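[Q] Does anyone have a clean structure-token version of this?
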Amino acid sequence: MEQTNQNNLLLASSLQISYGINNLPPKVEGLLSQFKFSEIPPVIYLKGKTCSGCFISMMNLSNRSPKKLIMNIEELMYPKGYTSPFNIAVELMKRYISGKIGPYFLALEGGIPKNPLDCYMANYPISYWVKNAARTALGAISIGNCAIYGNPGLANTTSNLYSLKEYLYMEKLFCPVLDIPGCPLNEENIKNTIINLVDAEYPGLNIKNNYDSVKTSPEIHPIHHL
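[A] Here you go.
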């Protein structure tokens, strides 16, 4: 998927709203303010095999209370008239993934188990959702170190995990990926990512930079054996 600076700006706007990031440099705020709320693609946030550190960190952001953050995410994700029971959220996600609603970004927190039975959502392995979303998303975001490196940091687990980039490479899915590191994810890394995305010199969602850390041999294997 060809990447443009416009998609970088849209992703920066989606991250700013999803995480409630304030106090950005005036130049950045000015460039992001060009988009109406209705023009900003939602972020479909999937959770692979991991702890809850990144999500809890998001809930503890200094600029937003958990209540305001949840309401903001819900406003971005659910059109008017929708509520957020799980089955409705799943159906809405399916419609986005099938391309029936509009553009969106995929975000993954945690790794993707080599054994699909190790992580399920709505009767399907998490790999099923990642694979299908990667085909239609504008781009993907690896949230935290587990999604970036495939290392959950969990003791005594029997599962080997793929990072998001490893999995997409293995499945021959060419969806551009942006990494936001952290264990857990922290506010400064999110803010710096938004600032860098607005910088025209920053590659951002660039498919050419997707697989720098992935082995290019025909046999792909997990880089972490736990």
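[Q] Thanks! Anything notable?
[A] The longest helix spans residues 5-19.
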